[in-house]
Amino acid sequence: xxSGTDVAIxxxxxxxxxxxxxxxxxxxxxxxxxxxxxxxxxxxxFFYNIIGIPLAAGILYPFTGWLLNPAIAAVVMAFSSISVxxxxxxxxxxxxxxx
Length: 99
Known about the structure:
The protein is about 70% helix and about 0% strand. By secondary structure, it is mainly alpha-helical.
């Protein structure tokens, strides 16, 4: 008798804890919001790396004689991580749409 619950839990996609079906819509909306944040974070991480790695490797040196200071590169990389984490933390501010 109790094994039916175990099977349902193992094969679930959404488990309702309360008896309100609007929570399914909220869960789907939250998952879309989270996926959007993941895409934003990937964009910014790739953007920083596409710009930062060639600069750190000295791509501008033959043209301008300018090399990126490793300390500045470290600060920029830390800012990249801080911006991605800060953007991810905005998920905590998620407000479900009221139907």
